[in-house]
Amino acid sequence: MYRLSPTLFCSLLLAIGCGETDPAATMGGATIDPTTGNTPPGTSTSTSTGTGTITGDTVPTTSTSGDPTTTGSTSSSSTTDNDVTKFDLGSGETQGETEQGCPILPNDANITGTVYAPNQVIPVSGALVYATDTIPEGIPNEVYCAECVQLPCETQFALTKADGSFDLPVPSSSKYIVVQKGQFMRVTEVQLAPGANPLTAETTSLPDHRDEANGLYIPNIALGLGSFDRLEDALGKLGLGDTLIDPNFYSETLVEGTQQFDMWDNGGGNLYATVGSMSQLVLDYDKLSKYHILFLPCTSDTYVSEFESELGKENMRKWVAAGGKFYVSDWANEYLAAGFEQYQTFYQDLDFGGADLLTPYDSLGTVLDPDMLAWLEALPPGLKNINPQNGGSDHPVISQLPLIETVDNWSGVQATPPVLVDDGMGGQIDVGHKTWIEGPGDGYNVPYNPPSPLTITGHYGCGKIMFTTYHMAEFSDSYIGLTPQELVLLYLILEIGVCQDAYEPPPPPQ
Predict the structure, then answer these.
(1) Which stretches are tagged as biased composition: Low complexity (predicted)?
(2) Which end of the chain is more exposed for a tag (fewer CB within 10 A), N or C?
(3) For position 495, what pLDDT does the model report?
């Protein structure tokens, strides 16, 4: 029997930062060949069954969105001449026809369901659901390179639609049903009878903890507990911890000790018990390498000097290049610039000596990514508006897409220049930032027009860097539920974990 490797999982599933690859010929299997760019409006995507090629949008020779783009001289198989495919399309299409001689399987059973976030409430688009006869390998318990590989034609799969639903024809028998998005994966053995086999949320939801013996995997997450942002509460609401709801004060906060992530002190260590300081983490690669994701929300510059040290820069670049996902927000921008300054430049405060830490502003941004937009549009009404749960308060709501309000932007991205690296075929590819959401600034430090990037991601080796100009959680007293920008955070936590080509990282600036 074919046994799926960890890298195949990520390429099958694709979830926290999809990469770009050069197309390959498909012989006896579908090539998983994803790109970080989601399908532009007006372009079509499709998935084929059996051994068919999964096709997506063609990447042009110049980049306007920040997605990796091939430039310069290329061979006949370059991305300028062929379709570059993205496996986590979120289109919900399933395998149907066969190509390249892959046999048609007798699909007399059908499985249906909806994939949810770990809290079993929020639907997940673009998640992979597939059936296999053997237990797949699990997610490595440390940082690793999720490179894209070929998908065997006999593997039957479906990608969830924008509302998280899926419909997958399979042969009736005992199967392992795998649900995966990025480093979140659930494996469940199911006896499938002929006909309809609806699956419950307990089988289809992404797990809320790691239990390898029972087929449950989540990413290892390190959170830099900051001075101002409350990402720990948001992660708890996503299902990675228990939360305590106080309806009298309209608050929902993390119950300490239930979190499925490690908190490291980055200026906010008096809020919860921490496992150590951010200095200890960034200066010790053995500790850092145990994590798939590092979150650094808004804080003071308590440990920024460690990130700016030569050892700190070296460790962070090494970790991201190995497959780490580094997510930074607003006033913590110096932590990102320390090791990856060539990826972005920040606006500076005109009144305070040129610092890149600004006074806050709200921005009615525009969602540029069509898959994110479709997911936001498909969310149930109760998730789009938390105000009824909070006494009719005026938290932002999702009501005028593609516009979305981002609250408490404390930073501004002035530019996201191209970052060119060798594509392995004699040309170059831009691994610089992709802009997911853009919007007007405050009209003083950050101009209204043209709109500036508010949410960006870029490639570095086999990993990802990510930045939001706004707080990860809305900066105010606590509240019940998730605001629009926290929902965007959930989408991107999952989206930046998908497989990608491990291009050689760009050299550090001189």
Answers:
(1) 31-82, 92-101
(2) C
(3) 83
pLDDT on residue 146: 82
Contact 37, 430 (CB under 8 A): no
What is the number of alpha carbons within 13 Å of residue 132 lying toward its C-beta? 23
Mark the ranges of the chain whose per-residue pLDDT is less than 50. 1-67, 69-99
- Looking at residue 142, its pLDDT comes to 95
d(CA 206, CA 196): 22
Cα-Cα-Cα-Cα torsion 95, 96, 102, 106, nearest 10 degrees, comes to 100
Spatial CA neighbour of 288 closest among 339, 237, 217:
339
Per the structure block, which two tokens stand in for 94? 């399933």
d(CA 94, CA 52) in angstroms, rounded, equals: 11
Q: Which residue has the tokens 């074919």?
A: 2
Work out whether strand 428-430 and strand 403-409 pair parallel, antiparallel, or are unpaired.
Answer: unpaired
Cα(86)–Cα(71) distance, integer angstroms: 19
309 token code pair = 């040290």
Backbone angles phi, psi at 190, to 5 degrees: -135, 135
How far from chain centre, in Å, is Cα 450?
27
Go through the domains of the chain in sequence order and give each one's CATH number: 221-496 (3.40.50)
Query: Taking the CB of residue 213, how many other CB atoms lie within 10 A of it?
Result: 6
